[in-house]
Every structure is written in structure tokens, then in C-alpha cells.
């Protein structure tokens, strides 16, 4: 059972950290895309959407070039920690966060754009800054869209496979998430083990989504 639970716990850890990171960036990007429309934000919006379009191996390749040992990020990380960033669980977090980001942004952006501009105008007249508008008015009014984005982002991060394999590998006990463990079991013709892991991953993800939906659907 350790071969099942260890990848599951790693998957949960990677998905939670990746979703938190994607949420922080996603809220800011959704805010820009919703209220500061220009050619630059339109171009950035297209770039953010690329993980939905590109094959996972291509996305993984770009990430490998961006955070590998020969990149600025990779060299900086290695100088700070003494070890490479690739083939670590942190690299798996980066891959999952990038893959989840567009699915997280779109519902949040739509919710931001649905906020009544009269509320924002009144708050501006009272002297509210842009950050105060976002934190005290926009986000509370758009909480359902934010929740939808979090759920979609978490589900995507939980099942991320291709890009994670490219930048983190499939090292048992270190970087092998449950999705990678399932692939490894199928490749090794361990179908009973693969069936159990598929069931556990499906039940875990569905249970978390149902709990979130039940908690906030009222």
C-alpha cells in the first residue's frame, strides 16, 4: 500500500501548493485582464492560455528550458539551495501551477467582469485605491467565480502528467505523483496496482470537489 499512498500524498501536496501559487498569480492576472484591457494585456492573456493548447510535452520542454540547470532560474536556485531545481517536487509544483493557471484565471476573470461598475465608481469617489477595490469589493462580490477557478485549478494540478514528467521525472518517493505512478504501473503490467491507484485518485478528487461544492453551494 505504500506504493499507492506515498504518490497520493505527494500529489495532494503538489496540487495544494501549485493551486495556491496559481491562485495568487491568477487573481492578479484576472484583474488585469478584466479592468485594464489593452494590446499588452491581450497578448499576455494569449500567452497564459497556451498551456491549454500546447501538447504537454511541448509545455514541459519550455519549462525544462526555463528552469533547467543552464537557465537563469535554474542557476539561481542551485546557488541558493545547493541542488538543481529539475527532478524535484518543487519542479512538479511549477509544472502543475503553469498547467492549472489558465483554468483558474478564466472563471475569475468572468466573475470580475460581472461586478457592477457602479459599486467601483462609488468606492473610487470615496478615495479607495485600486488594491482596496480588488480586496474589499471585487473579490467578495466575485467569490463564486473565484471558488470555481480554485476547484478547476486544483483538479488540473492534481492530474497533471506530461509537463511534470518532463521537468520532475518519476522518481519513487520523491517526484512520482499518483498520475505518474499509474503510468509506471501500466507500463510494468501491474494492472491490479494501476486499477487501485486510478480508483483512489478518482475518489479523492471527486470527494474534495463535492465537499467544496456542498460547503459553498448555498
UniProtKB/TrEMBL annotation:
Keywords in alphabetical order: Cell membrane, Membrane, Molybdenum, Transmembrane, Transmembrane helix, Transport
Membrane-spanning ranges: 12-36, 43-64, 84-105, 133-155, 194-212
Localization of this protein: Cell membrane
Membrane topology category: Multi-pass membrane protein
Domain ABC transmembrane type-1: 8-212
GO cellular component: plasma membrane
A molecular function (GO) term: molybdate ion transmembrane transporter activity
CDD domains: TM_PBP2 (cd06261)
Chief place where the protein resides: membrane
Family the UniProt entry places it in: Belongs to the binding-protein-dependent transport system permease family. CysTW subfamily.
Functional note: Part of the binding-protein-dependent transport system for molybdenum; probably responsible for the translocation of the substrate across the membrane.
Protein name, UniProt field: Molybdenum transport system permease
Lineage of source species: Bacteria, Bacillati, Bacillota, Bacilli, Bacillales
Gene coding for it: modB
